[in-house]
């Protein structure tokens, strides 16, 4: 384990977080809020410690894959611990375990909250909650790779970091150099965010709301910025948010293909077609199912579109209390929680690509019983999927299910009903936010015990980092030098 290199990376993460805290500090100055001092104190400490850890590049830059996974896991934990301090220092979320749950939910773009009265929070704290969605959406280390001075590294440091943090079964390079790939991804991310902000402002949404709602949409996070939720905005603003939630759930590599005018390659994506097909079918089924309850087709279509886009992309915004919908519609939303968005997007969940590959492999296995001598391969976008990838996805599914079952089992000690516990784990593990039952869109996770909040906090980090980086922290062999 190259501890000196890991310390160097953690130092850069702290420096980045210190810079990011400047924005909520400015917000506090604009709104003349005393709680802004909490950001000033945290910013100063993080900046100094970060500089001391990273001002000198280590001599030994050998960086293995396990080093990359551990560095990413520790980076996200450190980022969350430091990010929670303004809540605690200001007293707006006085208990550290609650503040940690809240900020982990922010950085992992989950949107699950322990805050019962969002309107009681200061503007700078609301801004910080939403901004953490945007920071964590594309990935903290992806941004660090775009700015950190690692150009001459030939040991694979950047690739290992990117593989550990990027969501999805595979990570590829858009251009030969990973540093340039990181810049391209963040360039697309920033451009789409700016377009969304402009459209919301032009549409009549207040500037503060436009910024915070755009941060949550881009990062597919979903923290509510008021007790009223997203339902207070006009229908045309809800439509804009719906469209962009779905757009941010698309693999960003496909947007790069559009920039290169490779339209055939873009349209060839099976994951994109499956993603859009699932969304369309879900919207139609829910619209038909709730039209009698809602009253008219237009409202039913608007509500179903928004909630389907919000849940499958793991954003978590809500314009209505879907906890009151018929069971059929709620079960569709529960299914979408597990499906998730596309690989390489800012969305969470199991990922459409994994699901597509598993379905294709299962069909091939069934056909092999009929024609045992036939040789069948799984293909995605016309290319063969290697057996190692299929085995990796199968292993991922097993670990995924084990963590799900254990998490539901342990938080059941708190005495909530089965639907609440199952949806709470589903909502946090898949980085969605609101669940069903007692953790529905109009409720919070505040009533869970400290132990349960700790388990759900781990689930959020494990879900965002694709399980392995967090699990490796518990392996003694990983820590050997």
TrEMBL record:
Q: Which Pfam families does the entry link to?
A: TrkH
Q: How does it sit in the membrane?
A: Multi-pass membrane protein
Question: Quick one: where is this thing mainly located?
Answer: membrane
Record field: transmembrane: 12-31, 37-55, 67-89, 131-150, 184-208, 239-260, 272-292, 331-350, 393-413
The answer to whether UniProt assigns keyword Transferase to this entry is no
| Keyword Transmembrane recorded | yes
Tell me the InterPro entries matching this sequence: Cat_transpt (IPR003445), TrkH (IPR004772)
Compartment annotation: Cell inner membrane
Keywords, sorted A to Z? Cell inner membrane, Cell membrane, Ion transport, Membrane, Potassium, Potassium transport, Transmembrane, Transmembrane helix, Transport
| Family according to the record | Belongs to the TrkH potassium transport family.
Q: What is this protein called?
A: Trk system potassium uptake protein TrkH
| Species this chain originates from | Breznakia pachnodae
């Amino acid at each position: 384990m190259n501890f000196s290199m890991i310390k160097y990376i953690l130092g850069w993460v702290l420096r980045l977080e210190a810079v990011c805290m400047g924005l909520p500090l400015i917000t506090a100055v604009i709104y003349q809020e005393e709680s802004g001092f909490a950001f000033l104190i945290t910013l100063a400490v993080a900046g100094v410690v970060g500089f001391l850890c990273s001002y000198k590049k280590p001599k030994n830059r050998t960086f293995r894959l396990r080093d990359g996974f551990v560095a990413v896991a520790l980076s996200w934990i450190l980022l969350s611990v430091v990010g929670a301090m303004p809540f605690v220092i200001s007293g707006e979320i006085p208990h550290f375990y609650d503040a940690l749950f809240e900020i982990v939910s922010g950085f992992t773009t989950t949107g699950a909250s322990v805050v019962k009265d969002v309107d009681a929070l200061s503007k700078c704290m609301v801004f910080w909650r939403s901004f953490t969605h945007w920071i964590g959406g594309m990935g903290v280390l992806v941004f660090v790779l775009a700015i950190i001075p690692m150009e001459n590294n030939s040991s694979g440091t950047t690739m290992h970091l990117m593989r550990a943090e990027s969501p999805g079964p595979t990570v590829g390079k858009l251009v030969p150099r990973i540093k340039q790939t990181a810049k391209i991804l963040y360039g697309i991310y920033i451009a789409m965010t700016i377009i969304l902000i402009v459209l919301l402002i032009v549409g009549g949404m207040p500037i503060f709301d436009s910024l915070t709602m755009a941060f949550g949409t881009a990062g597919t996070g979903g923290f509510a910025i008021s007790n009223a939720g997203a339902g207070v905005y006009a229908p045309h603003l809800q439509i804009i948010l719906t469209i962009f939630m779905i757009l941010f759930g698309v693999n960003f590599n496909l947007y790069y293909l559009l920039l290169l005018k490779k339209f055939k390659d873009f349209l060839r994506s099976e994951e994109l077609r499956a993603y859009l097909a699932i969304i369309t079918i879900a919207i139609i089924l829910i619209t038909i199912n709730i039209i009698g309850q809602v009253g008219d087709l237009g409202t039913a279509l608007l509500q179903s579109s928004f909630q389907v886009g919000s849940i499958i992309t793991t954003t978590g915004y809500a314009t209505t209390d879907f906890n009151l919908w018929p069971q059929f519609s709620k079960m569709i939303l529960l299914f979408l929680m597990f499906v998730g968005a596309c690989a390489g997007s800012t969305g969470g969940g199991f990922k459409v690509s994994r699901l597509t590959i598993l379905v294709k492999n299962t069909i091939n296995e069934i056909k092999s019983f009929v024609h045992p001598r036939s040789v069948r391969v799984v293909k995605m976008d016309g290319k063969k999927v290697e057996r190692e990838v299929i085995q990796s996805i199968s292993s991922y599914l097993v670990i995924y299910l084990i963590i799900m079952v254990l998490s539901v089992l342990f938080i059941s000690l708190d005495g909530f009903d089965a639907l609440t516990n199952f949806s709470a784990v589903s909502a946090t593990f898949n980085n969605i936010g609101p669940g069903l039952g007692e953790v529905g869109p109009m409720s919070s996770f505040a009533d869970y015990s400290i132990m349960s909040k700790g388990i759900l906090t781990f689930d959020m980090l494990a879900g965002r980092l694709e399980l392995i980086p967090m699990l490796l922290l518990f392996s003694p062999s990983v820590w050997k030098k």
